[in-house]
Design a protein that fits this description.
It is found in: Cytoplasm. InterPro entries: Rossmann-like_a/b/a_fold, Universal_stress_UspA, UspA. Residues 6-147 form the UspA domain. Keywords: Cytoplasm. Belongs to the universal stress protein A family. With 151 residues, the chain is an alpha/beta fold. The protein has one domain: HUPs (Rossmann fold). It is built from six helices and five strands. The protein has a five-stranded parallel beta sheet with strand order 3-2-1-4-5, sandwiched between helices. Strand 1 (8-12), helix 1 and strand 2 form a beta-alpha-beta unit. Helix 4 packs across helix 6. The termini are far apart.
């Protein structure tokens, strides 16, 4: 019998409930495999430039970076409360789709990417397409899409 062991799990977070659900499931996979969860927030310059924040000024970037740090800290706290702390925070800049499908998996030797079915921002999905859809098509490792809880 073949069993897959995932050691480096990447999960994207954007503050949405689905992203937190994906993180919690990534945490469970990591626990079973004694793996590391790379929790990533990608700040997409193109989206914010398109939405009239042109040019993307330093104050906005500083605020987005602080927001990302808070999201990562929240995830690390969830991990700590569940008794698992092999969690690394990653803040990346650029295309969320490229970062989640290619750049970050290569950098961290990721063998599983976990993404929420849809993220926080409907306008971004309209303008750039779904990050999850892109990751499914373009990632060179396994991808697990987390659907919303039936609550």
């Amino acid at each position: 019998m073949f069993t897959q062991s995932y050691k480096n799990i990447l999960v994207g977070i954007d503050g949405s409930d689905q992203a937190i659900e994906a993180f919690k499931k990534a945490l469970a996979v990591a626990k079973r495999n004694d793996g590391t969860v790379y929790v990533a927030n990608v700040i997409d310059h193109q989206f914010y430039t398109f939405m009239s924040y042109s040019p993307l000024n330093e104050n906005i970037m500083d605020q987005l970076t602080e927001d990302a740090k808070e999201l990562i800290a929240d995830c690390k706290q969830i991990g700590k409360e569940s008794g698992y702390e092999k969690i690394e925070g990653v803040i990346a800049y650029g295309s969320a789709k490229e970062a989640m499908a290619k750049t970050l998996p290569e950098k961290y030797n990721v063998d599983l990417v976990m993404v929420g079915q849809s993220g926080l921002n409907a306008a971004e999905r309209f303008m750039t397409g779904s990050v999850a859809s892109y990751v499914i098509k373009e990632a060179t490792c396994d991808v697990l899409v987390v659907h919303p809880s039936a609550e």
